[in-house]
Amino acid sequence: MSEQVNNAFYDELGEQWYHGDRHAIGLLRAESGIKLDFVRRHLLPQQRVLDVACGGGLVTNPLARDGYKVTGVDISENSLKVARDQGVKGARFVHGDAFQLPFDSHSFDAVLLMDFLEHVADPGRVLAEASRVLVPGGRLMFSTFNRNWASRMLAIEALRWFPESPPNVHVYHLFLKPDEVIALAQQCGLKFVEFQGSIPKVFSWPFWSSVFRRRVHEGFSFVFTSSLRVGYMGCFQKELAQ
Fold first, then answer.
1. Does the pTM of the predicted model rise above 0.85?
2. What is the CATH number of the domain that holds 114?
């Protein structure tokens, strides 16, 4: 039987969403900077944005500060409470399931699936539902992990180095190769726009401090790369005929 991904721990994070540094969530928080850079590249001012599986609002809240009309949706009520408690004007948070989003079709100009596709057994169904709520011509953006030995080492084995990280934050068989994502997206009327790789900024003191101290340094960061070997982000556009 295949290992099951542990999605339950997000419900127990509380303030660790924004302050935990001995937990894998610290790496997710560090990665939110480069995700935001990628997303902003594909958004127009004042667009309506849906952040699916928004968690504690690490992406939703900064986009709301930028002036976007952002809705975050998540199945974890506790995570949504943390997101709301940040008190960011313009951010709206809704309880809901990514497999059955509580929104009308064609409700959003952009949909985000950041660090989420590798957490579900049926990513095609998630993409189809995201496409449903997206306006024709709208854009879907995501981040996930490729499936190979390098991604296993960095996105699974390395997380165990942080003492408060739970087991099975990621499981290998749910990782997605880029061509697999393209095939699933095309079935939902989504046309490929761009892929962009990302990796930790290894040649930096915050990276090595995090390794030696087993705490995520506040300066830990990620950088873009042309290689899609480990983590990567992507953008698709919904076909106008939809």
1. yes
2. 3.40.50.150
